[in-house]
Design brief:
By secondary structure, the chain is of the alpha/beta class. It is built from ten helices and nine strands. The strands form two sheets. It has a five-stranded mixed beta sheet with strand order 4-5-6-7-8. The longest helix has 27 residues, at about 85-110. Bound molecules: zinc ion (2 copies).
Length: about 280
């Protein structure tokens, strides 16, 4: 059964497998087209393309940008982005710098809680410029301070927990505009995680569409069948494209597999021509 997976992370951000390994797993899962959507970085794309080509798998250049909307983080995915675009890469660089400012503060807090951890060991393990909380979580797992990445977030790293440090983030409109300026399609990631304090999700999606949003990630590993139906009808109602992906990270989300998520994910490959048409019109 041919399928897509348009939401995958690699070692270039906080995933635990290289782009080549992720592509290999996608091939085994029957994925015909995929997007590596690392956080704030697009350096994994060339490796993914080189591995995918001989397997007959298509690679769509992707990226994921975190933004802040009120109390909620809103993630915006970019597809078919011109990953050589100088201005866009400079913006991604600024986002990565804000992580670099935040990470040592998180480590300070963990040390203050009596945990033996240094930023040097986190950076050494990450081996990428896009160091983030999942890397810190992995060190905490290695040191057996926590039992899983989820445990690390629940006890220390998530908003409201003792080692949480806020990060300066763009607003969703900025993230969308950056992606559009780099000739990409902008898509609202995993709507299940969006918390709206004022108005409904539909209001927010309409507002974002007016500023350039192209699509919604309707198919997602943790969406229930009912949520998938709801988001599908939202996409129809607001006239947005439909996308989907697993949000595979490897060891930090061990229950999520490439292509099939928790086993029930199926992103139909019939969505791809519509995305390509829209990208061609940009
Ligand atoms: Zn996300
Ligand atoms: Zn993601």
């Amino acid at each position: 059964m041919s399928r897509l997976d348009l939401h995958l992370h690699s070692t270039h951000s906080d995933g635990s497998l290289s782009p080549a390994d992720v592509v290999g797993l996608a091939g085994k899962a029957g994925v015909t087209a995929l997007a590596i959507t690392d956080h704030d970085i697009m350096t994994g794309i060339p490796d993914a393309i080189a591995t995918a080509q001989p397997l007959g798998i298509e690679v769509i250049p992707g990226v994921e940008i975190s933004s802040q909307h009120g109390e909620s983080e809103v993630h915006i995915l970019g597809y078919f982005v011109d990953w050589h675009d100088v201005a866009f890469n400079a913006r991604l660089g600024t986002l990565r710098e804000s992580r670099h400012r935040r990470n040592p503060l998180i480590i300070d807090r963990l040390q203050g809680l009596g945990i033996d951890i240094t930023y040097e060991e986190v950076c050494a393990m990450a081996g990428t410029d896009a160091v983030g909380r999942p890397h810190i979580a992995r060190i905490l797992m290695d040191k057996r301070v926590v039992t899983s990445a989820k445990d690390a977030f629940d006890r220390f790293l998530a908003q409201g927990r003792p080692a949480y440090v806020p990060r300066e983030l763009p607003n969703p409109i900025e993230a969308i505009q950056w992606i559009k300026a780099a000739k990409g399609l902008a898509v609202l990631a995993h709507p299940t995680w969006v918390k709206t304090s004022e108005g409904t999700l539909t209001d927010l999606v309409r507002q974002l569409k007016a500023t350039g949003l192209d699509g919604v990630e309707v198919h997602y590993s943790t969406h229930t069948a009912r949520q998938t139906r709801e988001y599908l009808s939202l996409a129809k109602q607001v006239d947005l494209l439909v996308t989907g992906g697993s949000d595979f990270h490897g060891v930090t989300k061990p229950d999520i597999e490439v292509g099939i998520g928790k086993g029930t994910l199926h992103v139909p490959d019939t969505l791809l021509p519509k995305l390509k048409d829209a990208a061609a019109r940009l």
